[in-house]
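Section 5: illustrative case.
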């Protein structure tokens, strides 16, 4: 049923699946997605656009993540899409592409020891948390894929 019109359901068989995939391909072909999923949350500190964030377990407010602190601070929830001051709502990008600069295409990026920053060098040292946060698709685009922290021993 490729080329479906206004809410006509696809058949519940392989032909319906193929029709759905063809429609999906023609609908999104050639369109670059810059961000896919995110949410708003209040900041408990000043946040700059592009910084990596965590959600404070005590109140759910967001701040700058870092890998050399508590598991709470290393559990990244997304990147700040906007710069905001204390108490303002920050848009957090959780999946998709982050527009930034200075990246190495093809490189994996990790949460840094520096608050809110990312690095291509996985943190080492006992007690640091290893958190892979994405991969650069170009010098200006990071494909966001945040993983759970692993404690270095």
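Designed sequence:
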């Amino acid at each position: 049923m490729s080329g479906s019109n206004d809410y006509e359901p696809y058949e519940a068989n392989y032909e319906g699946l193929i029709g759905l995939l063809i429609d999906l391909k023609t609908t999104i072909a050639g369109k670059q997605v810059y961000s896919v999923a995110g949410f708003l949350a209040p900041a408990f500190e000043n946040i700059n656009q592009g910084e990596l964030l965590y959600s404070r377990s005590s109140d759910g407010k967001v701040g700058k993540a870092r890998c050399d602190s508590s598991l709470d601070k290393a559990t990244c929830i997304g990147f700040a899409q906007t710069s905001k001051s204390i108490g303002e709502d920050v848009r957090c990008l959780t999946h998709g592409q982050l527009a930034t600069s200075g990246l190495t295409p093809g490189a994996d990026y990790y949460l840094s020891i520096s608050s809110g920053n990312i690095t291509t060098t996985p943190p080492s040292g006992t007690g640091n948390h290893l958190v892979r946060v994405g991969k650069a698709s170009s010098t200006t685009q990071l494909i966001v894929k945040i993983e759970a922290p692993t404690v270095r021993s």
